[in-house]
Automatic annotation (TrEMBL):
GO terms for molecular function: histone deacetylase activity; hydrolase activity. InterPro entries: HDAC_classIV (IPR044150), HDACs (IPR000286), His_deacetylse_dom (IPR023801), His_deacetylse_dom_sf (IPR037138), Ureohydrolase_dom_sf (IPR023696). Residues 22-286 form the Histone deacetylase domain. It comes from Hymenobacter actinosclerus. It holds the Pfam family Hist_deacetyl. One of its GO terms (biological process) is epigenetic regulation of gene expression. Belongs to the histone deacetylase family. This is Acetoin utilization deacetylase AcuC.
Amino acid sequence: MLSIAWDPVYAHPLPANHRFPMLKYELLPEQLLREGTVPESAFFAPRPPLEADILRVHDTDYFRRLQAGELTRQEERATGFPWSPELINRDTTILGGTLECARRALASGGVALNIAGGTHHAFRDRGEGFCLLNDQAAAAAYLLARPELGVRRVLIIDLDVHQGNGTAAIFAPEPRVFTLSVHGARNYPHRKEQSDLDLPLPDGTDDAAYLALLHDTLPHLLDEQQPDFVFYLAGVDVLATDKLGHLGLSREGCRQRDAYVLGLCHQHGRPVVVCMGGGYSPNIIDIVEAHANTFRVAADLWS
């Protein structure tokens, strides 16, 4: 059975211009339950993370100011969100969900998924692009900080349409974490960081070109890196319908992407945590169905 992190605070109400993207956090679990992809028992409520688990990847001063609402106007604008205590509770809950997913995936040797997460634009000392705290970075650092868990190398596969700049910067000096980012070359962020492997794509990249690149890259990467654990950021802003993405994938192409990535993890016996990342298609059905495909694929593989 899949383990899925979800909490009602994921759909925390925001000002009107932010509410539409948040709808998926309500609709996605409802869809998965309604169609029978997962039972209700698959869902768990995340535990609040320990402060130490956050401070492994975030500066103390930044986190304190974030909690206290003391970001400058410029810092707040960079996050894209107006500050509120509820927003901080939401982001720490999401981070706690990814941490617990990592514990569960490692214990089962399988997969765990967070309905939210993938906040890869959060740096050690600042937030950007709707990301305040970097959940996958915190979970990777948690695993590596506990030698008894046996995780010595981590691979982060970031297939959101935007480069995982915060994650790349956090782990630049960490040889035990390999960061792969496949993203739109001309998309946000305009100033890219350096991942261990960046694969920038031209606007309009279609299913065939995208999938061929993954087939050429991932098997070699798994063989070379021999990771003990994988984090997968499965953003659906790669869809041709996405208003921010500029790539050309179909919903079926996006499903095949997930099937290939998760199939390789399953084939190699690598525990994996999946976070949903971005999705900004004007039709909410495109977003929810593309995300639901990720869970359907995982359910088929680890049934």
